[in-house]
Amino acid sequence: MRRGLSLVALGALVAGAGAGALAAPPPLATAASGWQVDFGDQRCLAIRRFTVGPTAFTLAIEPDVDGRGARLIFRPERAKVSPGRYRARLSIDGRQVAERMTVWPATSTGVLMMSGFRLEEEEAPLPLAAARTLTLQSLGLSATVPLSAMATVTPLLEDCNAGLLESWGFSRADQARMAERPKGRVARFFRPDDYPVASLRSGAQGEVAVRYTVGADGKASGCTVRMTSGDPALDKATCDVFDRRVRQIPAKDRSGAPMAIIDVGRISWIFPGF
Fold this sequence. Notes:
Elements: E1 2-3, E2 8-10, E3 30-31, E4 36-39, E5 44-52, E6 55-63, E7 69-76, E8 84-92, E9 95-105, E10 111-118, E11 133-138, E12 142-146, H1 150-167, H2 172-177, E13 178-180, H3 197-202, E14 206-214, E15 220-227, H4 232-245, E16 251-253, E17 258-259, E18 261-269
Parallel strand pairs: 2-18
Antiparallel strand pairs: 1-10, 3-5, 4-5, 5-6, 6-7, 7-10, 8-9, 8-11, 9-10, 11-12, 13-16, 14-15, 14-18, 16-17
């Protein structure tokens, strides 16, 4: 399993201190609202507010379009943790899926604590619809979150993701025709020297979410940024690598023939010492 975010973090990943903070069993969070599904034009989120002791936080779950992973965003209403890359433990029904968490400043006050998982091709599925609990143990927030009603929310997220792909040019008919998704780790095509010099000098970091076409020959093309890192150079560098280097085993249709599809991915740019 690739730990952390969906694809890769470039540069040195520096773990925060505090291994002892992961030892105590986390308290059980209480739902403070129902699940809401955000049908965005670039991503699909299930959102719910929770409380654990005096702390209130919002959890957003963004499943990958192929169901092999998810991005998880925790937004505590009062968080005393600095941006950085920290040791953390994220488990779903007791199965550990990540060991790091990235903390970014939010667009307004507070911080966003981001983690997630991405299953390797040979790993057994981890269906969120059947999951009962999600446990986070970290310096900034520790809680066991009940995932009740995810079985109801998951079909809505799947339909939302199918609608996104359709709006990007991958029709629902072609989605249904696809029997196998592309194979091969996109992460291996990214190198530390891809980090833009100007971004290093300015201290720019961030996560870039993209969509791109995987052709019937396995070549990536047409990369488009769907969520910016906030730094144009990082956004451009991400798509440059996709369009110049990324190659995968192409998707196959139900007859076994290669077919072109639209896929999505995320890249986290983190420079040494952060």
